[in-house]
Amino acid sequence: MIITRTKKELKETLKNLSKKPGKLALIPTMGNLHDGHLSLIKLAKLKSTKTISTIFVNPLQFAKNEDFSDYPRTHELDIEKLEQEQCDVLFMPINKDEVFPDTGKIKNIDSGMLGKDLCGKIRPGHFNGVLTVVNRIFELINPDIAVFGAKDYQQQILIRKMVKSLYSNLELLTAPIIRSQSGLALSSRNNYLSKDELLLASNLFKSLQRSVESYNNKISIDQIINDAQEFLKSNNLFPDYFELRDSQLKKIANNSFIGKRVFLSSVTINKTRLIDNIEF
Ligand code: AMP
């Protein structure tokens, strides 16, 4: 795997890579790679001949009170894992100046109303930061394919909207959520939890599964959401939201909705925020 740490090295590497035929697939990450991330690389390799992953903890998507400086950084292990997956190139910028323009003039992308909903309500400005950096990475790499995980459901929908208006030739792939045996969705933030908290955290997925069952048994949506919130709280998981939406994240009012639906939730356990969802 070729490791590039500057914009200049990246440019040269991409120039050489462009001589190889086939599609280039991009897998953007913040590092601390787990099997969820690696499943994205596997999917990318199935759909392309060249793969490039990025590891960049993007300061724009963290608020002042959030975990930017504590976010786990495990570069050596990450490189080993990417090499095992036979990823062709890694772009792991030495600092943010290798991502954003020298002029300091960042092209800010506005995530609109949806960016202020759900996770955006709890993390103001988060999705503007995500879209701004993803757009910049697309500008730098110009991939044919980009792969994101369904775990970050709202993020993936917002990126799809941005791609529709700015990158008509870019194909987006969404990879399914990878979970631990307990059902807990893999996440770098699981590292913040103790053994006991990890056990409690697996109840987030249980609450989503139970809600799908209740929906199919025609229990009213208000009742389902109320039950889920009580269940979460009884397990020390404090819900920021628990909602039923359609696949474009519009609200669903009753059980007669036809089409793909998704239960989504964000909970806090001892200062750590976890998100999960089930599409059905
Ligand atoms: P992150 O490093 O957390 O920014 O995640 C990078 C990419 O990996 C995003 O597209 C995430 O949606 C995806 N991802 C993270 N966790 C999982 C998981 N458990 N299963 C599938 N994809 C995931």
Can you give a write-up of this model?
With 280 residues, the chain is α/β, with parallel strands linked by helices. It has two domains: 2-175, Rossmann fold (3-Layer(aba) Sandwich), CATH 3.40.50; 188-279, Pantoate-beta-alanine ligase, C-terminal domain (Pantoate--beta-alanine Ligase, Chain: A,domain 2, 2-Layer Sandwich). Helix content is 37%, strand content 19%. The protein contains nine helices and nine strands. It has helices spanning 7-17, 35-47, 75-84, 119-122, 126-141, 153-166, 195-201, 203-216, 221-234, and strands at 2-4, 24-29, 50-55, 89-91, 145-149, 171-175, 238-246, 261-269, 272-279. The strands form two sheets. Strands 1-4-3-2-5-6 form a six-stranded parallel beta sheet, with helices on both faces. A three-stranded antiparallel beta sheet has the order 7-8-9, covered by helices on one side. α5 (126-141) packs across α6 and α8 (203-216) packs antiparallel against α9 (221-234). Bound molecules: adenosine monophosphate (AMP). Residues 29-30, 36-37, 39-40, 148-149, 151-152, 175, 177-178, 185-188 line the site of adenosine monophosphate.
Looking at the overall shape, the CATH architecture of the largest domain is 3-Layer(aba) Sandwich
Radius of gyration: 19 Å
Q: In this structure, how is the largest beta sheet organized?
A: 6 strands, parallel
CATH topology of the largest domain: Rossmann fold
Separation of the first and last Cα atoms: 38 Å
Question: What proportion strand?
Answer: 15-25%
Question: Bound small molecules, which ones?
Answer: adenosine monophosphate
Number of helices: 9
CATH H-level homologous superfamily name of the largest domain? HUPs
The average pLDDT score comes to: 97
What is the number of independent domains? 2
Question: Which percent bin holds the helix content?
Answer: 25-40%
